[in-house]
């Protein structure tokens, strides 16, 4: 691996903590629903409100999802882990403590692999632990008072913590994207970043190469990859400025303001909480029997890395293409369906990475919303392959498939008159005409000017109104001109 | 038979109700009249109408020929640490003045399902913190044997009400002795079952790893009937023991193998820990206990000398672990969602500070401070972690004992009930008096207190029995046999006849 790029002579060191909201129907310690967007406090039961006498009971579905994640990242799934109370006062924290895991988390170690500019990278995980989310403070519309919405209180989270392995904002973003892909792929998180289902805290420090780690500042609550990149880039420059000015970086928690593009300190180390962690006496240790782990393992889907390797091996896709085809499970399923229907992996991949990705990005949409079915794309690829359509014609057909929500490829080719000429006699006649009418080009070609040949092919295409197969036309011309 | 209605315990009343010698409405009315006249401060809330409605419903079902369980129509009341849907639930605290729970505690719901008629809520130390019932925001409870004395705590209202014949039985909770010690001070019988036998759902939490519900009544038999209805696995409490429902009454009646009519406890080995009879044990308590042990011996039991070497250490261990858990459990009382909120505040920090300063009493604040301290960064290892290690060793000591005995016997408290206000200026003295009840609490073992004689000032003295895990049946059997041979449990305070 090449040495990391330095910024103004400094090496950047990043570790990420990601909160992935687990996709259970009910909360981690109560039976209330986890659905997003309900009217405030309509999805908070007595346990979520921390009413006197209530007790937490572990949701096995949340544990199952943690096991699933642990297996997917090659981590140790702890046979026994402990829930602890993290004590602090805040109005949206109903019990006055958050139930989390502290000394003994459920997932220990593991790693995430991804590509960064064509190079393979591995980020090691320290741990992943189960915890409950807090509620929300609503600072608007309450006439100077603060409203509290406890719908989110008790929502299950898996907090995934990395080692300080990343060396650039780009690497942090690619790791976060790979992690996002993975948790959505596994079906343990819906990955909706706008609703807060997947949010990251970035621990950032800088150092001179070879020196010990610098003091880190933690950027809280990054809920888009773009903000993550911007926030880290700003933070890195800010820290280097400090050091270059002969000042120290103080440990702090900072927030990123997307409007100004700046990070600003929220609290310093001095006013850090003493959370008084201790094992939660309401919850016995979480015991995970080997049989449970094996049951989850048996239900694991093929993971993106393994699938990409399979696409490279069996379909002959380049590594970049294979990674692109596994950007999400839905994308991979689309690719496989289209590939199976036409048997042409690379053209399918090209369409997915090209035209389809371009249009989905423009619409800020995902493959699930693609108006062109895999079988339809396969038919299009087949029609290019069998010479019916030129690439140009195919693009025209695709436009109709997409915009007009059509699925009848052959009918479109017919209606638009895009069928390439497959009548050899007719094409030969056109070739004869073109040779006769372009004596000068013919002469130049025979004198060794390749450019003149292209002009002749162009004339054949023009004379055929674009319906000639350019490869066929070129073959005929070559044969005829000797 | 109305004149003697309040004399009937659970079993006797149950038989009278089943034989239709008395109706539930009659006994409910009779006890409500006594309760409304009581001067002990035992009740915080009396729910006359709801109680009579329940009593009428039971009477109607019985009249319709339905076969009902032993508690059907029997009036009881609940320590105000249990939340109840139909009555206020205060936990003895100003913090929860007027608090209306939307649900019943599991123990409350189970007793209601068994047909017990709930007459109201009983006074207790604030959040169950105390051993004299002097820490209630709603005033102290007085001991029916001597109103100038405390009834014990924290289930002081429960103990006083049962002793004063206001109720045949009541619920209580025991974290470090809060059922056993007031039972002892008030001359009644109380049992704290093995941790996990009764659901904690709906008990306002004090120290989650120690809190356990149990009954206070006049006899082991009455306790057995109550406990059978109160106990059982509850999916809403993750620390609840997953086991089949138990018939403690049947277990209590089970004759021991090798027992004879004159020696019903033959073969029973009773361990007497030498640490439970220190020089500081009051002379009157010591004398009553020795006599009680002799009775047990006379009934066929063998007394075995055993040792619980960490008995004294159980005090600091308990007073680290219980406040630590309490400091966290009581964080929810912050003025945001329910309970007391201070009237005026400038910002959030002041809202918290004033709300909690106003809402909590002195002892609760003291324990929150202790608990916060022992969990703080830099102190956790020295206090909390160390206490947890010792707790484990204390539990192991019991298992050593149970290798050579079946039950452990000793005093409940070092003295009889003291005078109100006697320990106002010395909280540590009160902590020290918990020495004999704390070990079983820390180990999670079942323990009970039964009347075993009288001491200074004619005050009752309790005998404590401690059993191994889930051995409530055998413990109740020994207690029942003892009560068949003695009449301490039938004695009634002068004012309560």
Question: Would you mind describing this structure in some detail?
Answer:
The complex is a heterodimer of chains A (482) and B (497). With 482 residues, chain A is α+β, with helices and mostly antiparallel strands. Chain A has three domains: 11-296, no CATH class; 302-416, no CATH class; 424-481, Arc Repressor Mutant, subunit A. Chain A is built from 15 helices and 17 strands. Chain A has helices spanning 60-72, 169-185, 225-244, 290-298, 304-315, 319-325, 329-342, 345-362, 374-385, 391-403, 409-416, 424-437, 439-446, 450-463, 470-481; strands spanning 11-21, 76-77, 80-81, 83-87, 97-101, 107-108, 111-116, 119-132, 136-138, 147-149, 156-162, 198-207, 217-222, 252-257, 262-268, 278-279, 286-287. In chain A, helix 14 crosses helix 15. The longest helix of chain B is centred in the last third of the chain and has 22 residues, at 381-402. Chain B is α/β, with parallel strands linked by helices and 497 residues long. In chain B, helix 10 (314-329) crosses helix 13. An eleven-stranded mixed β-sheet of chain B has the order 1-3-2-4-6-5-10-11-9-7-8, sandwiched between helices. Chain B has 16 helices and eleven strands. The chains are: A alpha+beta (482), B alpha/beta (497).
């Amino acid at each position: 691996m090449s040495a990391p790029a330095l910024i103004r002579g400094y090496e950047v060191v990043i570790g990420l903590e990601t909160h992935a909201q687990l996709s259970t129907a009910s909360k981690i310690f109560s039976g209330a629903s986890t659905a997003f967007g309900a009217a405030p406090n309509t999805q908070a039961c007595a346990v979520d409100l921390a009413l006197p006498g209530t007790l937490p009971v572990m949701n096995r579905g949340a544990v199952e999802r943690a096991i699933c994640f642990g297996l997917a990242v090659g981590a140790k799934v702890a046979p026994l882990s402990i829930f602890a109370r993290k004590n602090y006062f805040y109005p949206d924290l109903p019990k006055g403590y958050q139930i989390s895991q502290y000394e003994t988390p459920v997932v220990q170690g593991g790693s995430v692999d991804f590509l960064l500019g064509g190079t393979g990278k591995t980020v090691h995980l320290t741990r992943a632990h189960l915890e409950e989310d807090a509620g929300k403070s609503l600072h608007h519309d309450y006439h100077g008072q603060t409203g509290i919405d406890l719908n989110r209180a008790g929502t299950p989270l898996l907090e995934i913590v990395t080692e300080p392995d990343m060396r650039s904002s780009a690497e942090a973003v690619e790791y976060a994207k790979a992690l996002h892909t993975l948790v959505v792929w596994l079906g343990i998180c819906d990955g909706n970043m706008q609703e807060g289902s997947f949010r990251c805290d970035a621990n950032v420090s800088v150092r001179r190469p070879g020196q010990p780690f610098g003091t880190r500042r933690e950027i809280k609550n990054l809920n888009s990859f773009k903000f993550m990149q911007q926030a880290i880039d700003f933070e890195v420059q800010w820290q280097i400025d400090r050091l270059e000015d002969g000042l120290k970086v103080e440990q702090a928690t900072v927030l990123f303001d997307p409007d100004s593009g700046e990070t600003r300190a929220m609290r310093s180390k001095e006013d850090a909480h003493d959370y008084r962690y201790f094992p939660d006496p309401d919850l016995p240790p979480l015991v995970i029997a080997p049989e449970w782990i094996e049951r989850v393992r048996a239900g694991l889907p093929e993971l993106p890395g393994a699938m990409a390797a399979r696409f490279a091996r069996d379909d002959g896709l380049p590594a970049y293409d294979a990674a692109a085809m596994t950007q999400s499970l839905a994308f991979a399923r689309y690719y496989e369906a289209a590939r199976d229907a036409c048997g042409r992996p690379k053209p399918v991949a090209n369409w997915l990475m090209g035209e389809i990705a371009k249009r989905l990005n423009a619409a800020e949409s995902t493959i699930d919303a693609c108006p062109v079915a895999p079988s339809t794309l396969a038919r299009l690829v087949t029609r290019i392959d069998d010479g019916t359509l030129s690439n140009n014609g195919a693009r025209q057909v695709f436009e109709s498939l997409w915009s007009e929500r059509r699925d009848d490829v052959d009918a479109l080719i017919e209606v638009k008159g895009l069928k390439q000429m497959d009548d050899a006699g007719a094409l030969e006649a056109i070739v004869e005409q073109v040779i006769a009418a372009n004596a000068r080009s013919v002469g130049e070609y025979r004198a060794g000017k390749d450019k003149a040949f292209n002009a002749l092919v162009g004339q054949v295409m023009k004379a055929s109104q674009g319906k000639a197969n350019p490869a066929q036309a070129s073959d005929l011309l070559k044969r005829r001109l000797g | 038979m109305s004149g003697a209605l309040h004399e009937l315990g659970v079993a006797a009343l149950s038989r009278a109700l089943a034989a239709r010698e008395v109706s539930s409405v009659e006994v409910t009315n009779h006890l409500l009249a006594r309760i409304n006249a009581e001067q002990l401060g035992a009740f915080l809330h009396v729910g006359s109408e709801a109680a009579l409605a329940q009593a009428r419903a039971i009477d109607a079902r019985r009249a319709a020929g339905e076969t009902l369980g032993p508690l059907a129509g029997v009036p009881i009341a609940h320590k105000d640490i249990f939340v109840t849907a139909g009555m206020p639930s205060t936990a003895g605290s100003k913090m929860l003045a007027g608090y209306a729970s939307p649900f019943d505690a599991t123990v409350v719901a189970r007793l209601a399902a068994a047909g017990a008629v709930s007459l109201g809520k009983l006074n207790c130390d604030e959040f169950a913190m105390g051993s004299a019932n002097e820490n209630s925001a709603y005033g102290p409870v007085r001991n029916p044997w001597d109103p100038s004395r405390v009834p014990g705590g924290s289930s002081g209202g429960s103990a006083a009400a049962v002793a004063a014949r206001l109720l045949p039985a009541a619920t209580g909770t025991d974290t470090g002795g809060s059922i056993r010690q007031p039972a002892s001070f008030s001359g009644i019988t109380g049992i704290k079952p093995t941790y996990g036998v009764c659901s904690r759902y709906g008990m306002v939490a004090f120290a989650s790893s120690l809190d356990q519900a149990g009954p206070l009544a006049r006899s082991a038999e009455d306790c057995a009937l109550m406990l059978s209805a109160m106990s059982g696995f509850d999916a809403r409490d993750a620390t609840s023991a997953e086991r089949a429902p138990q018939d403690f009454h049947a277990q209590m009646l089970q004759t021991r193998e090798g027992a004879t009519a004159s020696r019903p406890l033959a073969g029973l080995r009773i361990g007497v820990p030498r640490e439970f009879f220190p020089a500081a044990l009051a002379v009157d308590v010591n004398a009553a206990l020795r006599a009680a042990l002799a009775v047990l011996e006379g009934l066929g039991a063998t007394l075995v000398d055993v040792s619980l070497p960490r008995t004294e250490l159980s005090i600091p261990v308990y007073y680290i672990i219980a406040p630590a858990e309490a400091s966290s459990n009581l964080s929810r009382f912050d003025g945001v969602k329910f309970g007391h909120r201070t009237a005026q505040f400038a910002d959030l920090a002041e809202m918290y500070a004033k709300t909690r300063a106003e809402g909590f009493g002195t002892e609760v604040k003291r324990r929150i401070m202790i608990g916060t301290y022992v969990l703080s960064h830099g102190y956790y290892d020295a206090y909390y972690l160390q206490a947890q290690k010792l707790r484990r060793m204390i539990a192991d000591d019991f298992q050593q004992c149970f290798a050579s005995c079946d039950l452990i016997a000793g005093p409940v408290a070092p003295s009889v009930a003291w005078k109100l206000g006697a320990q106002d200026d010395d909280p540590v003295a009160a902590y020290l008096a918990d020495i004999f009840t704390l070990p079983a609490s820390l180990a999670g073992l079942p323990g009970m207190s039964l009347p075993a004689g009288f001491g200074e000032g004619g005050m009752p003295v309790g005998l404590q029995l401690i059993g191994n895990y889930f051995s409530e049946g055998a413990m109740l059997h020994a207690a029942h046999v003892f009560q068949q041979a003695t009449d301490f449990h039938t004695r009634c305070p002068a004012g309560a006849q």
